[in-house]
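Input.
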Amino acid sequence: MDLTAILTSVLTLLAGIGVFLIACQMMSSNLEAASSEKLKKLFSKASDSKLMGVGIGALGTAAIQSSGATTVMTIGFVNAGIISLAQAATIIYGANIGTTVTAQIVALGMFGGNSLSTSVIFSAFAGLGAFMSIFAKKSGPKTLGGILAGFGLLFVGLELMSGSMEDFAALDGVKTFLAGIGNPILLVLLGALFTAIIQSSSVMTSIALAMVVTGLIGIDQGIYLTMGSNIGSCVVAVIAGVTSGTNAKRTALIHLLFNCTGVVLFLLAALVLGLFDISYGNLFERLFPSAPQMQLAMFHTFFNTITVCIMLPLTGALVGLVSRMIPERTVPQESEFSLHYVDENLLRTPPVAVSQVKREILRMADIALENVDRALFMAVQLDFADKSRFERDERQLNFINRDLVNYVVRLSGRSGLGEKDKTYLSGTYRNIRDLERIGDYAENIVEYATTLADTSQQFSDDAKYEISQMKTLLHQLYDRTIEAYQNESLAALDEANAIEEEIDDYTKRMEEGHITRMEKGICTPSVGAQYLELSSNAERIADHMINIAKSIKSLKPNSL
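Output.
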């Protein structure tokens, strides 16, 4: 056995795996950037429908070419409380179907024979995509270039892996050794181990395809290696789940149990078929004669689809099982507060993380408005029964301000973001700061109310009425602001601008009314001072609200 030949083949295989992994990463990040808006809409439609969950998982994985990314993203949603365990399970089922697309693409690239190979044709896309990425001026063509380059490099890596397999196939010692590995369980374990090491079931499946096509292993050996890759692919989810909350751990366990169950069922079925001298290889050789690459790729799709069909009706039982295996634990929380909609795992899919940042900011806005309402109620009624809740929410606003900004900083540095998402994120820092400042002004109003109570004074009935009118205007402004921000509505922004101007005019009338009451002796100077400060703070609250609405202008270039 030629040692140099073996070493060359091993190094070529490693080179092929490296190129293939980089290609997958390039395709995934650029596909995410290109389909960011559709991806966000897709995952926002998660519902209690099992079929809907499967569809979302399959389409999402097919779109970004990464079942690992879809699974980790799902774990992030569960950990943030956005979707239930049952919904997460069905999305993971779908991800297993979506990941078979890669194997089908790779199998397609292995056709050609003596004619021009499809793999060579597809590899040429790497050059075309590279030229587009380098010379394109706009982000759209650059992203498309990245997708094409990744697609082409996929087949460059495949060619390198296939070449190494052909070299191995020429070595009698290697062929004899591999031929001796016929135990299905051992092959499954080897497939699982290799996939766990490289953290890519696509690479394992592609290597198995290359080995089958070059005759290095038989179709049945390739089938069992591929089945093992499904188990090994769970390592990404397990790593993500271990570092997260209880439900995230349960989701990772669902993924592992789902894939293991499918493998066990197919191994048992193989034993039954063996009694009649039938194997999976025999069946798929008959269905797709003279096309070993299609035989393995189609088995991969068949295996995952049938497993989903079996497990889908058992989702409730599976959720119940993992809930018993990983019970809720009452542990001291490190922090009184947490971010509800964002999660560390979502950083793996930046476009979806961006949409979750927006939801977190909207939640922060609701908390800020509630505190404004509480502050105005205390100022008018001098009733401080809700003051502890007010103080808690003020601390929560400060917490969100700090932690969400840190999250956005990390998210902004991720690849796979479209230009619009980058522009949106650059404006979120001020949005978050505006909302935190609204909370601060509400805190000032509570201090004015406390001063009045401590001195046994209160606002006049006319002043209380004006404050109630101001509160109504602030609510109107808030509604239009949120509509503008959430839907990027320029019409809502125009309405918000009109209401903000009305608030400016109303604060002037509040000052004039105060002076009139002072002249009539209705209000004392000390009460008047608190009233003027309150009206000034209300106006500043409106200013910060309109800042948030105006931030959508950067997302609408034609509006400037």
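The chain has a mean pLDDT of 84.
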